[in-house]
Amino acid sequence: MSTQQEGKFQAIISHAKEYGFVFSSSEIYDGLSAVYDYGPYGSELKKNIRDYWWKAMTQLNENIVGIDAAIFMHPTTWKASGHVDSFSDPMIDNKDSKKRYRVDHLIEAKAAELAEAGDQAAADALIADMDRLLAADDYKGLRQLLDDQKIVCSISKTANWTDIRQFNLMFDTQLGSVTEEANTIYLRPETAQGIFVNFLNVQKTARMKIPFGIAQTGKAFRNEIVARQFIFRMREFEQMEMQFFVRPGTELEWYEKWKQTRLEWHLSMGTPKEKLRFHDHVKLAHYANAAVDIEFEFPFGFKELEGIHSRTDYDLSRHQEFSGKKLTYFDTEINKHYVPYVVETSIGLDRMFLAVLSNSYEEETITKEDGSTDQRVVLHIAPKIAPVKLAIFPLTKKDGLPELAHEIYKKCAEQFRCFYEVKDAIGKRYRRQDAIGTPFCVTVDHQSLEDQTVTIRHRDSMEQQRIKIADLISTVQAAL
RNA sequence: GCGGAAGUAGCUCAAUUGGUAGAGCGAUAGCCUUCCAAGCUAUAGGUUGCGGGUUCGACCCUCGUCUUCCGCUCCA
To answer: For residue A469, what pLDDT band results from cuts at 50, 70 and 90?
Structure first.
């Protein structure tokens, strides 16, 4: 990150706090690392982004329906999904080099070394030992294995290791009010599994025919090792996911289609093309046969904003296996039963929020009529997702202007989010709205009392025009 | 978890070799009535991150602790 970009990122974070978008969690207690709260304008913006996504997915696609699954799920869900085994890796630190390693990586490296030296039998035996110990969660045994094999840190060349500790991706908690009877359950690390386990419920009750999709937004929780970069990487975050079920063999066509469809969605939100790019996954996850990220150029570089994965029939097959319930679909067109393949689109709502904020934030230098310059901070948020659509100001506090202005406010507030303010000079009020991204401000002046017109001021151009009060709502709505 | 840096009002900062905290902006109320943040008046707001120690006396020195930021480590 360059110093300039870093400065911009810091400015965005400060701005987010100062104007009620994002606060750090429990701030009066010095905050909680990697957890954030959304303030009055932040919650509004976040909701608008979520609604826009939801509408694009469910309302505008007749073959996509929504669900709202619980955060708690049966523990076996996470065994089936692979989260329990794949993401509870034993870790170890070297005390001299201060480097941290995954124990299995260290042992695998040693095995590779042995194999290269020609001792394939020893390598195989080592891997077998490791797998047995990993399966038994035998950390003492693993530690012993490191010692026996004289495995050293590649940097310090010493075997001065800490104890083995486990890194858990998932948060757990107790289900059941009596401790002794309680069962460990997890806070979901992704919303997708709530869709998979409900596949048949949804397909049958909504009478869906393949190809069809199930959309869901909701919180997910991950114990990230490094949780930084503001709301980019949080322990508690919100996902917007859609799982699209297709006939086996057609998944890559749908994958391409959704890749394009999702990119178009981003462009329709006003994100500039040059700030978006596809990044193909070279190394695919265990469940995928194609995967791509849509990356956005944040102030700290191009980073993943959304993932589109062709997940094959991995998830449904695994749930079928673990639950013992058939999760097949009868395709009347080809007269066959099969486990559908899945194409997933998964976007982080908080990341999208940060993308909107980063993209719209501008410190603008404006030249006034007398030639002097001035600074303003403006959020160029697309009107359809802006927290406040319209601000209404009486030019002065007297002569009945506040009364008329407030009357207009009450009328407009029935249609969209509005803001009314009397205090301070008119320019100051305009600037405050610029800072929260309000696309339109109208000012009620003395002429308004005469001819029922107001001036409407546009955020980005700062230009004003006089329009009839009667046309106000439709003028604003045309931009939403 | 390790290393480095920093914590004073909502924000940005100040407080002369240690002498019990100030300013600007912001906020609130009022005046002014003005179409792009800059007029006037008043008010509120801080156990100086927290805890111990040294001292007659600590924002300042010292120890511990917490938090944040930067780098490293891990990451479907």
So the answer is: very high
Residues forming a β-bridge with A128: none
| pTM listed for this prediction | 0.88
For residue A229, say whether its CB is under 7 Å from any atom of strand B: yes
Beta partners for residue A283, in sequence order: none
**Which domains are delineated in chain A?**
3-78+185-357 (3.30.930.10), 89-166 (3.30.40.230), 388-478 (3.40.50.800)
Q: What is the pLDDT of residues A109-142, one digit of tens each?
A: 777 777 878 888 888 888 888 777 777 767 777 7
Tell whether A48 is in a known binding site: no
Q: Does residue A248 approach strand B to less than 7 Å at its CB?
A: no
DSSP H or E stretch at residue A344 = strand A341-348
**How does residue A36 score in pLDDT terms, banded at 50, 70 and 90?**
confident
Spacing of A233 CA from B5 C1' in Å: 23
Contacts for A335 with CB less than 8 Å, ≥ 6 apart: none
Contact A235/A222 with Cβ under 8 angstroms? yes
pLDDT digits (tens, 9 = 90+) for A97-106: 656 677 777 7
Which amino acid appears at position A305 of this protein? L
**Which of A 58-117 have CB under 7 A of nucleic chain B?**
87, 89, 91, 93, 98-102, 105
- Phi/psi region, residue A207 (left: phi>0; alpha: psi -120 to 50; beta: rest), is left
CB of A366 within 7 Å of some strand B atom: yes
CA of A116, C1' of B63: distance in angstroms? 53
Q: What does residue A343 show for φ and ψ, rounded to 5 degrees?
A: -110, 125
Asked if the model's pLDDT at residue A380 lies above 50, the reply is: yes
Decide: CB of A44 under 7 A of nucleic strand B.
no
Q: Is the CB of A308 under 7 A from strand B?
A: no
Q: What is the nearest nucleotide to A24, using C1' and CA?
A: B68
Residues 134-163 of A with CB under 7 A from strand B: none
Q: Is A118 annotated as a binding residue?
A: no
Of A285 and A305, more confident: A305
Per-residue pLDDT at A436 exceeds 90? yes
Q: What interface predicted TM-score (ipTM) does this complex get?
A: 0.85
d(CA A73, CA A321): 17
From the alpha carbon of A220, which nucleotide's C1' atom is closest? B76
A10 nearest nt, CA–C1': B69
Instruction: List, as one string, the DSSP characters of A153-210.
Output: -TTT----B---EE--SS-EEEESSSGGG-EEEEB-S-SHHHHHTTHHHHHHHTT--S
Which tokens sit at A118? 């020609």
Q: Shortest CA distance to A295 belongs to which of A279, A274, A308?
A: A279
